[in-house]
Amino acid sequence: MKLAPIKNERDYQKALQELEKVFDAKPNTPEGDKGQVLVLLIEDYEKKHYPIDAPDPIEAIKSTMEEKGLSNKDVVSYFGSKSLVSQVLKRQRNLSLKMIKALHIGLKLPYEVLLG
Fold first, then answer.
1. String of b and e for 18-45 (b: at least 16 CB within 10 Å)?
2. Rounded to an integer, what distance in angstroms lies between the CA atom of residue 13 and that of residue 82?
3. How far apart are CA 92 and CA 78, in angstroms?
4. pTM here?
5. How far apart, in whole angstroms, are the C-alpha atoms of residue 102 and residue 6?
């Protein structure tokens, strides 16, 4: 396959197939270099044609809590009080900047996600 910009779905599928062939290639080899270029081309096409919306901040918090096995009681220190945890998770109150910073540090959630 000749390396070229991906212009349509057919090109995209071909690029994916080519990437599969060189996926396990060693770095700094012709195949490894081809794989790196294909990844860049594929990512560029996907950003334009298959954009992924940023996750909802509250859903991200809930999901992280579930993954880590945390209850509302376990995250009180990030929110300030039990009632604030409940209000925020029920969408009755917005996240404050203080909460966002604490959640970023404590749960390692990206600011971009928490700011929505």
1. bbeebeeeeeeeeeeebbeebeebbeeb
2. 50
3. 17
4. 0.58
5. 42
How large is the angle between the packed helices 82-89 and 57-68, nearest 10 degrees? Answer: 120
CB 61 within 8 A of CB 107: yes
Token pair, residue 111, equals 């600011």
Quickly count: other Cβ atoms within 10 Å of residue 51's Cβ.
7
Token code pair at residue 93? 């109150």
Q: Half-sphere exposure of residue 79, counting CA atoms within 13 Å on the CB side?
A: 20
Distance CA(113)–CA(116), nearest Å, equals: 5
The residue ranges of DSSP E strands in the chain, in sequence order, are: none
Sign of CA dihedral 105, 109, 112, 116: negative
Distances (CA, A) of 104 to 30, 55, 57: 41, 15, 11
Residue-level pLDDT, tens digit, the chain, 116 residues? 688 999 999 999 999 999 999 999 999 999 999 999 999 999 999 999 998 887 899 999 999 999 999 999 999 999 999 999 999 999 999 999 999 999 999 999 999 999 97
